[in-house]
Write a structure and sequence with these properties.
The protein is α+β, with helices and mostly antiparallel strands and about 550 residues long. It contains 14 helices and 22 strands. A hairpin with a 5-residue loop joins strand 13 and strand 14. The chain is elongated. The mean pLDDT is about 90.
Length: about 550
C-alpha cells in the first residue's frame, strides 16, 4: 500500500468537485467509516475511513450498509455539518491530512465557519471537527496522558499535525538526488514511490516523472504474491503487469472488500465470535458424550459381576471391601464391594448399574446425534460468514434468532413488506443462475424460487451454497459453471477435483424437523471440478456492476 502524501495530493484534485456542494446527509458505516452525501450542481458520496490499515478518502459509487443507531460523534457531525456548504478542500503541503472548510448556520440562524480535519496517518488516522480553533469532537480521542503535545478531546485547543521539518516538497523542485533515501529528504514520498522514481530515472529525467505524476488522474494496482500495491503511476519496478482505474474507482475496488469483514463483525454483533464459541462448546460436549458412551457400552461387565455375586452369596459377608471369586470360565476375578451391603445387596447394586448404563446408551446416543447436528450447523454458519456480505450476515443473525440461539433484537413495531433474501443472480448464456450464500437464501431459491424442472447444484456431503439454473437441459458449459459456483461458495474453495452433486429440483425434499437448508435427493449425478477463482470473481464482479 502507498497512500502517501503525493497520492493524497492527486486524490485532493479529484475531491475539488465537492467544493460548493451541500452536505445533505451523514451516515455511519462502521466504527471507523463515515459516508457523506453531497448535493448541488451534481451529487457525490464521499467515503472517509479512519481505519488503522485502510484509512482513505474518495468518492464512492458502492452501496454501503448504514447503521440505524449511529454513535455520538456521527450525531454531532449531523448537528453541525448537515445543510452546510463545503467552501474549500486543502491538503497541508504534502502531509497526509486534509482540511475541509464548511459554512453553515447554528440553531438561531447565525453563520458559523467550521473545519473538518481528515487525518490519514495509519494508526493515528482520525476525523476531527473544529470551531474557532477548539475541538468540538473527534472520532478518536487522545487524552493528555497519552500525548502531552497534541491532545484530542472535546473542548481542547486544536493543534494541527506538526509539519515535517527540513524536508523538501518534491513537486516544487526540478531535480532530486535519487541515490539518497528519498523519504528521508523529501516529504510525501513513500518507499514504494521512491523505488519507482529510482527505477524510472535510469531512463528519464525527474522533471518528466514529476509531470507524469501531476498529470495523472489514474490509479495503477500491481499484484505481487497476492499482495496489492498501488500509486498514481505504474509501479513497473515490481512488474509490467498492472490494472488501471480512475483514482476513486480504484480505491473503491481495492478497499471495499478489505474492510467488509470488519464491517460485518461490527454491524452483525460479532457473529464470528458467537459461532466459534458454539463450535468449541459442541466439540467439547461431543468428546464427553463419546467417553460416556464408551463407558456405557461396557455395561455387560457389571451384569457379569452381579451374576457371579448371586452365584456365590455364601462366600460374601457384610463389611468386606472386595472379594475374589471364580467367574463362569474358571478364571479368578476380584470384585469391589460396598462394605455396608451383604452379597445380595452388592449383586443388586451391580445389576442396577448395568440397567442404568444399558438404558442410558440410547439417550447418550441421542445427545451425540443432537450435538453432531449442532456442530455441523455452526460449522456451516462459520463457513457462510467467511464469504458473506453485510446483507447475508444480517440474514444469518435472523436465522440464529429464529432458532433461539440468539436473543431477538427489540425493534419498533412497524409494518414491513416481505423482502426477498439477498441471494445472488447471474445471467449466463440467456439463462438465470441463482446462488444462495446462507441457509435462508438456500431454502428460498430451492423451494420457493426454482421451478421443479430447474437444475440444482451442491458440493458433495458438506455444507455450502445451493445453486439453481433455470434450464431443464443445461449444457456442459453451464453445468461446469454452476458446479464451480457451488464449489467456490464452500470450504473447499481452494481444493482441486471438487465433487459437486446436481439434479432436478423435483428430486429434492426437505428433511423433516431438520435445520433450514437441509435436503435429501432421490437421484443425482456428480461432477468433479477444478475452479478458476479469478474467473469466478470476475464474473461475480461484472454481474454486480
Amino acid at each position: 500500500m502507498a497512500f502517501d502524501g503525493i497520492f493524497l495530493h492527486q486524490v485532493t484534485k479529484q475531491l475539488q468537485k465537492a467544493v460548493g456542494l451541500r452536505i445533505v446527509k451523514i451516515h455511519q458505516i462502521s466504527d471507523t467509516e463515515v459516508l457523506f452525501s453531497l448535493k448541488g450542481y451534481s451529487s457525490y458520496q464521499l467515503m472517509v475511513s479512519a481505519h488503522s490499515l485502510y484509512n482513505r478518502i474518495h468518492f464512492t459509487s458502492k452501496k454501503y450498509p448504514t447503521r440505524n443507531s449511529p454513535n455520538n460523534f456521527i450525531i454531532l457531525l449531523r448537528k453541525y455539518l448537515e445543510s452546510g456548504v463545503i467552501t474549500s478542500i486543502k491538503q497541508a503541503g504534502l502531509d497526509r491530512y486534509l482540511i475541509f472548510d464548511v459554512d453553515n448556520r447554528n440553531e438561531i440562524g447565525d453563520k458559523i465557519h467550521l473545519k473538518l480535519y481528515v487525518e490519514l496517518m495509519g494508526k493515528y488516522a482520525n476525523i476531527i471537527l473544529v470551531h474557532n480553533d477548539r475541538i468540538i469532537d473527534a472520532l478518536k480521542h487522545i487524552p493528555p496522558f497519552e500525548n502531552t503535545i497534541r491532545t484530542i478531546q472535546p473542548g481542547a485547543k486544536f493543534t494541527e499535525t506538526p509539519p515535517q521539518l527540513n524536508k523538501i516538497n518534491p513537486l516544487e523542485v526540478d531535480e532530486i538526488h535519487y541515490d539518497d533515501k528519498l523519504s528521508d529528504y523529501y516529504t510525501g514520498i513513500s518507499d514504494l514511490l521512491a523505488n519507482q522514481i529510482r527505477f524510472l530515472m535510469q531512463s528519464q529525467s525527474y522533471d518528466e516523472i514529476k509531470k507524469a505524476i501531476l498529470n495523472s488522474d489514474k490509479m495503477y494496482i500491481t499484484t505481487v504474491n497476492d499482495k496489492q500495491y498501488f500509486h498514481c503511476i505504474p509501479l513497473t519496478f515490481l512488474s509490467q503487469q498492472y490494472q488501471q482505474y480512475d483514482i476513486c474507482e480504484g480505491l473503491d475496488y481495492l478497499y471495499f472488500s478489505k474492510e467488509e469483514k470488519d464491517r460485518i463483525r461490527q454491524l452483525t454483533g460479532d457473529l464470528f465470535k458467537f459461532t466459534r464459541r458454539e463450535i468449541n462448546k459442541y466439540t467439547k460436549k461431543l468428546a464427553v458424550l463419546n467417553a460416556d458412551l464408551q463407558s456405557a457400552q461396557q455395561c455387560d461387565k457389571y451384569k457379569l459381576m452381579g451374576q457371579i455375586l448371586y452365584s456365590n452369596l455364601d462366600k460374601i459377608t457384610k463389611g468386606n471391601k472386595s472379594v475374589t471369586l471364580c467367574d463362569f470360565d474358571g478364571e479368578n476375578i476380584t470384585i469391589e464391594l460396598d462394605e455396608k451391603l451383604d452379597g445380595k445387596g452388592n449383586a443388586k447394586k451391580y445389576f442396577t448399574k448395568y440397567r442404568k448404563l444399558s438404558t442410558g446408551q440410547k439417550y447418550i446416543q441421542q445427545q451425540i446425534d443432537i450435538a453432531k447436528e449442532n456442530l455441523d450447523y455452526f460449522t456451516s454458519i462459520a463457513q457462510q460468514l467467511e464469504i458473506c456480505d453485510f446483507a447475508s450476515g444480517q440474514e444469518i443473525r435472523l436465522e440464529l434468532e429464529r432458532n433461539g440461539y440468539l436473543k431477538a433484537r427489540v425493534q419498533k413495531a412497524r409494518k414491513k413488506k416481505p423482502v426477498e433474501p439477498n441471494y445472488s443472480k447471474i445471467q449466463f448464456e440467456g439463462y438465470t443462475i441463482l446462488v444462495g450464500k446462507n441457509n435462508i437464501q438456500n431454502d428460498y431459491i430451492t423451494f420457493k424460487k426454482a421451478n421443479r424442472f430447474d437444475y440444482w447444484f451442491h458440493i458433495k456431503q458438506v455444507s455450502g451454497a445451493h445453486v439453481i439454473i433455470n434450464n431443464s437441459e443445461p449444457t456442459e458449459k453451464q453445468i461446469r459453471l454452476c458446479a464451480s459456483l457451488a464449489a467456490y461458495y464452500s470450504c473447499y474453495r481452494n481444493s482441486q477435483s471438487i465433487a459437486v452433486d446436481y439434479t432436478m429440483v423435483k428430486n429434492l425434499k426437505k428433511i423433516p424437523n431438520s435445520k433450514l437448508g437441509k435436503v435429501i435427493m432421490k437421484q443425482y449425478k456428480t461432477i468433479y471440478i477444478d475452479i478458476n477463482q479469478k474467473e469466478i470473481e470476475q464474473l461475480i464482479s461484472n454481474q454486480n456492476g
